[in-house]
Amino acid sequence: MALIKYPSVNSCFKEDAFEVILKGSHNIGIAMATPHGLVVPNIKNVQSLSILEITKELARLQQLASDNKLSSEDICSGTITLSNIGAIGGKFGSPLLNLPEVAIIAMGRIQKVPRFTDDGNVYPASLMTVNIGADHRVLDGATVARFCNEWKKLIENPELLVLHLK
Fold first, then answer.
1. Active site members
2. What is the pLDDT of residues 12-38, one digit of tens each?
3. Taking Cα atoms as reference points, which of 58, 8, 10 lies closest to residue 30?
4. CATH number at residue 134
5. How far is residue 82's CA from residue 76's CA, in Å, rounded to a whole number?
6. How many domains, the chain?
């Protein structure tokens, strides 16, 4: 849904033609560390899939990646990549673009940290660091920040996601 609100984040950059191509399909790349190295298969047309369909496709891609049997179709045509560096203990990182995509999101592991109420009381909060790498030939910092804020709002309020489920 954040990609619908900020369609330029779901685009690619054709270097030879110096052209930006907005993509209608949300083909979400999932960076996966495997015994054979890092691979980035993508779940195609996420905007048209139910949560169950996304879960099944993710499981299929994980199995193929683990078995080193991903096809070229599984890894081509991504429009944005997610990298869960938290799965391997990472807290934050500087994700590198999966060209020709113009954005990548790296999510760190969830950490318990102390926070303070307005009246000075301490409470535990669960925080996850998110870093976005972007191609500034296409995306300016303000667009990336607004996209990140929208994405954060959806992650922190899953009931908003439910409103848009298939």
1. 136, 140
2. 999 898 899 999 999 999 999 999 999
3. 58
4. 3.30.559.10
5. 15
6. 1
Tens of pLDDT, residue by residue over 118-157, are 999 999 999 999 999 999 999 999 999 999 999 999 989 8
Gap between the terminal Cα atoms of the chain: 13
Residue 145 is encoded by which pair of tokens? Answer: 């920040």
Widest CA span in the chain: 57
Domain range for 140: 2-162
Q: How many CB atoms lie within 10 A of CB 10?
A: 23
Instruction: For 9-101, list the strands marked E by DSSP.
Output: 11-14, 19-22, 28-30, 32-34, 37-39, 42-43, 80-84
Task: Write down the pTM of the prediction.
Answer: 0.88
Cβ atoms within 10 Å, residue 135: 18
CA distance 48 to 162: 14
